[in-house]
Each structure stands twice: as structure tokens, then as C-alpha cells.
């Protein structure tokens, strides 16, 4: 029996008011044809609920440019799903926050990619974005809606990560989630802005140390090797990774794409994640359940014995698995080895 997804990121619309240099969706202000209608969106929620009760992340593009975002969030909340919203934060105001709260949205993520307006705005392609996002956060706080900060790490902002974490802590974020640049969408043009593998190792070790004393929740997404590093560090410290010592992170694994997580595009394509442009099926053509359970793509990803190169030989493959999107971007084969890992399995 295939377990249902625990987390679904749903691109409500591809359209966006910003033009970030790294955007995996290459989003612009245009709205493409064929995005799910309100009733198709509700039907999708029904399909999700028939299978399980995952966390549903409403993302984009910029989900707040879609007028029925509240109606969809309300519908999913009423059906028992925990709904989160991923936004760039620039379109938040009193009224929007109130409507999100009324729709039952439980947490909002705001992307902050620099500790200064200059770095953030350069990243996000629009002057004033930093100020607008920070103002957005104030509206969330005033409205009593919990939020987390999402940061994508590249060579441009690597030195600012400690400062962004400090901002996140000072402004009252519940969590700071880091994403490591995946060279896909517009991010492909930033290829030599990915931090090199040795730098990944350094940042993830730093992250491990921070976990021990920062008060907010930290999570490294799109950095599956963190789950290896965590075990190597624990071993050196004479402990093991257990829920007691390492909390939630002990129960999960590196890449969850196709295993307990998936991404659904604005036109209904189901993908392992938003960074891996390979399609398992489209919900307008097939049931979500059938796509999730039967697609060759998802079944490949669930079979760690199919991993190629050094990921296939690695004793950490059950807890890491490498970034399938980065492997695909580098080779065209989503089961190939993760290109940004310095570990050499024996
Ligand atoms: C404990 C709960 C959570 C877990 C385990 C989790 C885990 C994940 C995972 C595995 C991914 C996919 C990354 C990949 O494909 O490798 C992801 C993506 C993401 N998460 Fe979380 N997440 C959690 C909570 C949240 C919350 C509460 C928010 C927002 C309020 C959020 C925002 C996002 C966003 C925006 C993405 C990227 C989706 C996209 O646009 O492609 N996450 N998360
Ligand atoms: C959901 C989060 O994903 C980030 N994001 C957008 N494009 C990419 C990419 N190519 N690589 C990594 N993260 C990305 C956004 O900046 C947001 O914070
Ligand atoms: S990363 Fe988010 S805010 Fe930036 S262009 Fe893409 S969808 Fe818009």
C-alpha cells in the first residue's frame, strides 16, 4: 500500500508581482491559460481529502494574486486540512491578513533573501520589495497570524544568512527554513551562483550548531545532505540521531519528493517538487490518487535501490537520497547522483 502524501505544495497561480532572479517557476505578471478554475481547485481538495490529511501549502507564483485564494483556503480548512500560505509578503495588508485568518490559514511563509534591502531587492528584481515584505510581516503580527521566513541560499547572500536568522528571531518568526538554490527555471541562469559543495558542507554544519541554541525552529529544505551531516556530527558527539536528541528531524529524511511530498502546478501537473520539472500526470486527466500511487516517476523515487552513481552506493541513501532536482538539472536523469555532495561512500 502506498502511503498518502504528508505535505502538498500547490501552485495556485503561476502569475506573480515580482520577478526574482532565481525563480524556479520563471514567474512573471502574466497568467497562463489553463490554470485550474475555482471548481477544479475544490475538486482537487476533495481528492486530497479522500486520500489523507496532509499539510497543504498554497504557493505560486504569488498565491495572493489569485482572487479566490481565500475561498480555496476556506474550503480546504473546512475539509480538515492544515493550510499554510507561501508568499513574498509584498501584497499583505490588514484586510488580506484578516481574510487569510478567517479562511483558517495557520501559518504564512515570507521569503527573505537578504539581510539588507539591497541584497533582497537585487534578488527579487523589484526595488522596495524588502520594505514591502517587512511591512507585510508587521501586518501578520498585528493580525496574530504566525509566520516563518524562507531563504534561498546562493553565493550572493551566503554571508548574510546569520544576519537573516537573527532578523527572523528578532521579528518573532516561528521558524526559519533555508532552501538551497536549485538551477531550474530562471535559477538556471544563476548556475555559477550555486555555492560549491564544500561551502554546502560548511553551511549545513553551521546550521547543525545553530539548531542547538536558537529559539525558533530551523529547517533545511532542498539540502538532503543535511541528514547525513546530522548523523556524522551526532556520531562524533557520541550520540545517535533520535527524536529525543534531534526532535522532528530524526523522523524524516532528506528528499521527500514523490515519497511523502509533491508539488501541483497551476495547470494541474503533479511533480515530485517544484524544482524538478518532470510530470507524473495531470489532475485534469487522471485522479490524483492514481497519479500518486501508480506513476512510474513516483515509484522510481520510492525505490532507493534505483539511485545512481555514488548516491546508489551510499550508506546514507535511506536518510538523504540527494536532491533529485539538482541531479536532473545536471544530467537529465532524476535518479543520478547528487552533484553537490562532497561525501565519498566507500
Ligand atoms: C513541519 C512542517 C513542514 C515540513 C515537514 C516541510 C517540508 C517541506 C518539504 C519536504 C518541501 C519540499 C522541498 C523539496 O521538494 O525538496 C517543502 C517545501 C516548501 N515548504 Fe515546507 N515544510 C513544512 C512546513 C511548511 C510551512 C508551514 C510552510 C509555509 C507556511 C512551508 C513552506 C514551504 C514552501 C513555500 C515550500 C516550497 C514549495 C514550492 O514552492 O515549491 N513549509 N517543505
Ligand atoms: C518557496 C521558496 O522557494 C524559493 N525558490 C524559488 N526558486 C528557487 C530555486 N530555483 N531554488 C531554490 N529555491 C527557490 C522561493 O524564494 C521561496 O522562498
Ligand atoms: S520566487 Fe516567488 S516571488 Fe519570486 S518571482 Fe518566483 S513566484 Fe514570484
TrEMBL record:
Domain Radical SAM core: residue ranges: 2-219
Coiled-coil residue windows: none
Assigned keywords, A-Z: 4Fe-4S, Iron, Iron-sulfur, Metal-binding, Oxidoreductase, S-adenosyl-L-methionine
Protein name listed in UniProt: Radical SAM family protein
InterPro entries linked: 4Fe4S-binding_SPASM_dom (IPR023885), AdoMet-like_SPASM_containing (IPR034391), Aldolase_TIM (IPR013785), Elp3/MiaA/NifB-like_rSAM (IPR006638), Heme_synthase-like (IPR034480), PqqE-like (IPR017200), Radical_SAM_PqqE_MftC-like (IPR050377), rSAM (IPR007197)
UniProt-listed NCBIfam families: rSAM_ahbD_hemeb, rSAM_more_4Fe4S
GO molecular function term, any single one: metal ion binding
Domain of life the protein comes from: Archaea
Cofactor(s) it depends on: [4Fe-4S] cluster
Pfam families, alphabetized: Radical_SAM, SPASM
Organism: Methanococcoides burtonii (strain DSM 6242 / NBRC 107633 / OCM 468 / ACE-M)
Amino acid at each position: 500500500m502506498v502511503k498518502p502524501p504528508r505535505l502538498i505544495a500547490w501552485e495556485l497561480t503561476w502569475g506573480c508581482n515580482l520577478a526574482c532572479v532565481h525563480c524556479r517557476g520563471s514567474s512573471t505578471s502574466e497568467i497562463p491559460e489553463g490554470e485550474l478554475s475555482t471548481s477544479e481547485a475544490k475538486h482537487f481538495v476533495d481528492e486530497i481529502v479522500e486520500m489523507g490529511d496532509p499539510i497543504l501549502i498554497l504557493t505560486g507564483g504569488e498565491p495572493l494574486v489569485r482572487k479566490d485564494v481565500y475561498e480555496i483556503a476556506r474550503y480546504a480548512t473546512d475539509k480538515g486540512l492544515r493550510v499554510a500560505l507561501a508568499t513574498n509578503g509584498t501584497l499583505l495588508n490588514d484586510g488580506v491578513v484578516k481574510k487569510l485568518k478567517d479562511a483558517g490559514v495557520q501559518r504564512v511563509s515570507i521569503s527573505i533573501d537578504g539581510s539588507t534591502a539591497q541584497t533582497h531587492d537585487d534578488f527579487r528584481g523589484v526595488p522596495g520589495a524588502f520594505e514591502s515584505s517587512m511591512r507585510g510581516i508587521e501586518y501578520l503580527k498585528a493580525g496574530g497570524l504566525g509566520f516563518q521566513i524562507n531563504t534561498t541560499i546562493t553565493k550572493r547572500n551566503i554571508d548574510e544568512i546569520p544576519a537573516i536568522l537573527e532578523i527572523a528571531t528578532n521579528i518573532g518568526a516561528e521558524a526559519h527554513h533555508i532552501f538551497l538554490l536549485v538551477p531550474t527555471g530562471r535559477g538556471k541562469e544563476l548556475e555559477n551562483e550555486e555555492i560549491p559543495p564544500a561551502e554546502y558542507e560548511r553551511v549545513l554544519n553551521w546550521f547543525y550548531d545553530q539548531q542547538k541554541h536558537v529559539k525558533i525552529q530551523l529547517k533545511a529544505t532542498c539540502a538532503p545532505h543535511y541528514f547525513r551531516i546530522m548523523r556524522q556530527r551526532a556520531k562524533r558527539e557520541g550520540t545517535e540521531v533520535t527524536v529525543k536528541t534531534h526532535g522532528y528531524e530524526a523522523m524524516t529524511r532528506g528528499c521527500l519528493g514523490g515519497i511523502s511530498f509533491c508539488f501541483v502546478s497551476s495547470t494541474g501537473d503533479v511533480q515530485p517538487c517544484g524544482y524538478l520539472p518532470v510530470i507524473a500526470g495531470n489532475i485534469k486527466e487522471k485522479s490524483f490518487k492514481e497519479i500518486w500511487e501508480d506513476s512510474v516517476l513516483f515509484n522510481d523515487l520510492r525505490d532507493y535501490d534505483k539511485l545512481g552513481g555514488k548516491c546508489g552506493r551510499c550508506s546514507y541513501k535511506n536518510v538523504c537520497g540527494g536532491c533529485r532536482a539538482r541531479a536532473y538539472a545536471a544530467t537529465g536523469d532524476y535518479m543520478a547522483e547528487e552533484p553537490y555532495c562532497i561525501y565519498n561512500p566507500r
